[in-house]
Amino acid sequence: MQYPFTRIPPYDAQAIHDTIERALAGAGLDTTSGPMREVSDTIRRALAVPPASGGEVIDVPARVVDGETAAATLPPAAGGWLSHEYRNAAGVRAYRVHLPAAAASAPRPMLVMLHGCTQTPEDFAAGTRMNRLADEHGFIVVYPEQAAQANPSRCWNWFQAQDQKRDAGEPSLIAGIVREVAQRHDVDPGRIYVAGLSAGGAMAVVLGESYPELFAGVGVHSGLPYASAHDIPSAMAAMKGGRGGLSRAASQRMSAPAVSKVAKRAVPTIVFHGDRDHTVRETNAQEIVRQTVEAHQAQAGGQQFQTVIENGTATGGRRYTRTSYREPTGPARIEFWSLHGAGHAWSGGDLSGSYTEANGPDASAEMARFFLALPRLD
Q: Is the pLDDT of residue 10 over 80?
């Protein structure tokens, strides 16, 4: 995730960055290593300045892949790889739809995939390999695309008040896309799920809170909890692990109708996060889990979960800890995968996509498994 920009007038970001770098160097501070390297990288992300030669925009080796290059790596979509556009009072967003090749004998499940900053639907599809899983299991995948006009880094605006509430902003656009695709392609309305990476993961959480009757499950990779920010400074603080989020004054400004921390229905959630993620700290994943556990317990009248902790090592060598929260019967309602030594990238992803790492457990496969085991949403 890069710095979550909002709509601002144009300016010469590179010139501003160079001026700051010269000032730091003039003060005798080395910005190429040590603590000042992180300061320099944060300034670079804040200004959306490309990384210096040899650098990366996130804290793990990652490739910045354009849409055309990523699209060339996608397997042929025998069922269909469709392009559409949705508009409502909040604006317009393009989206792609992957239809599985096999004919459907009944309404299909559907998964909405929300890309991270700088990514495209084609890039995200290539990196997560979710289309291949869709062909295997017979579900539809939808990839809404953030517009550069809405955010110069193509981040979903999870941190803005108007984009954290029902029937407004980006949640309304994504929900509208979901309903449009569901009607057009005979989707089972009780088996619709949403997942995302980084800013997309944060927006997936927003959608679970804003439209609990629409989504039967939420998947979050390297994302942030609901209502953890209200503007750019608080977003940066939240990403770094601070819970500055909604101060008392901010809460008053946003008011209950704008953002409510109480979901109408507890939504099953699966969370992946690297414990060495320096872009979005793992404490954010822990807060997502805490919020979700409390929502489920409130819905169940205080009933406690059975907690199961498993340690393992993926075939690629990445160690992980999976914590599952279960009711007395049925599948896990919440899973938290802590990826040991991992940074800010999709676990078990395909290296043809950006912001992926191949050594960890396959987050895509585990999310598909988690979602498809859940009971149908009534």
A: no
137-181 pLDDT, tens digit each? 999 999 999 999 999 999 999 999 999 999 999 999 999 999 999
Q: 373 to each of 132, 201, 252, 368, how far by Cα in Å?
A: 18, 21, 40, 9
Q: Flag the least confident range among 47-61, 117-131, 211-225, 230-244.
A: 47-61
Q: Which residues pair with 80 in a beta bridge?
A: 99
Check if the beta carbon of residue 318 is closer than 8 Å to that of residue 342: yes
Report phi then psi at 91, rounded to 5: 140, -150
Which residues are CB-contacts of 374 (< 8 A; sequence separation ≥ 6)? 216, 217, 268, 331
Q: Which two structure tokens, joined as six digits, stand for 130? A: 């979710």
Percent pLDDT > 70 in the chain is 73
pLDDT tens per residue across span 300-316: 877 788 999 999 999 99
Residue with tokens 């010469």: 12
- Rounding to the nearest 10 degrees, give the CA dihedral for residues 233, 168, 116, 192: 140
Cα 211 to Cα 165: distance, rounded to the nearest angstrom: 9
Q: DSSP states of 8-52 as a string?
A: -----HHHHHHHHHHHHHHTT---SSSHHHHHHHHHHHHTTPPPP
- Nearest residue to 4 via CA among 46, 63, 58, 65: 46
Give the side-chain half-sphere CA count within 13 A for 258: 14
Helix (H, G, I), strand (E, B) or coil at 333: strand
Strands 140-144, 108-114: pairing is parallel
Tokens of 6: 């909002």
| pLDDT, mean of residues 251-272 | 59
Q: Which of 116, 295, 301 is CA-nearest to residue 209?
A: 295
315 to 45, 78, 366: CA distances (angstroms):
33, 30, 14
**What tokens does 340 get?**
């040991």
Assigned token pair, 207: 């959608």
Q: How far apart are CA 345 and CA 359, in angstroms?
A: 11
How far is the C-alpha of 13 from the C-alpha of 24, rounded, in Å? 17
